[in-house]
Design goal:
By secondary structure, the protein is an all-alpha fold. The chain has a single domain, classed as Ferritin (Up-down Bundle). It is 73% helix and 0% strand. It is built from 7 helices and no strands. The protein has helices at 3-16, 20-44, 47-63, 70-74, 89-113, 117-144, 146-150. Helix 1 (3-16) packs antiparallel against helix 2, helix 2 packs antiparallel against helix 5 (89-113) and helix 2 runs parallel beside helix 6 (117-144). The protein is globular and about 45 Å long.
Length: 163
């Protein structure tokens, strides 16, 4: 499965999350995807982007929860384990960035109504992790350049226009 489909599945699952545990589990899922995508891109991209991809993988690793957590098992395990090659870096990074933004928003909402200090601080840590991974995504997109960040553009000289 490609990273875009995994991220879209995570976005759908986040939208259907009804409990704090489910939202936090989706945050962990997003971080696991950030780690897996970062690892994959570090192996595939040119040297200038390789370091940034490693940074994304490390940020994802710091933010993900324990793979054997009951909430992750209930979701069928870590979705990012299904990541296959090849990876469309720009599209994958864009959808991961959107997912991380949505995760951050959901966690803020959960934290504002938390009546348990432990839950509140778990949310704060997950928000920080999502923001860190999101920053790494933006850095990678910046390194890849405007063409990759905004999607393909017509090739120069590839039309029949008069010069």
């Amino acid at each position: 499965m490609d990273a875009v489909r995994i991220a879209e599945a995570a976005r759908d699952a986040l939208a259907m999350s009804g409990t704090t545990t489910e939202v936090v589990a989706e945050a962990w899922q997003a971080q696991a995807l950030a780690q897996a995508l970062g690892d994959r891109l570090a192996a595939e991209l040119a040297p200038p982007a390789r370091s940034a991809a490693r940074g994304l993988a490390e940020a994802g690793e710091r933010g993900r929860g324990p793979a054997d957590h009951p909430a992750l098992r209930a979701a069928g395990g870590i979705r990012a384990a299904a990541l296959t090659v090849p990876v469309d870096a720009p599209a994958s990074l864009r959808v991961l960035g959107t997912l991380l933004d949505e995760i951050g928003t959901a966690l803020v909402l959960v934290a504002t109504v938390a009546d348990d200090a432990w839950v509140y601080w778990q949310c704060m840590e997950a928000i920080d992790a999502a923001a860190d991974s999101g920053d790494r995504v933006l850095e990678l997109l910046r390194i890849l350049g405007p063409r990759e960040r905004d999607g393909p553009t017509p090739e120069a000289g590839g039309t029949d226009e008069a010069v």
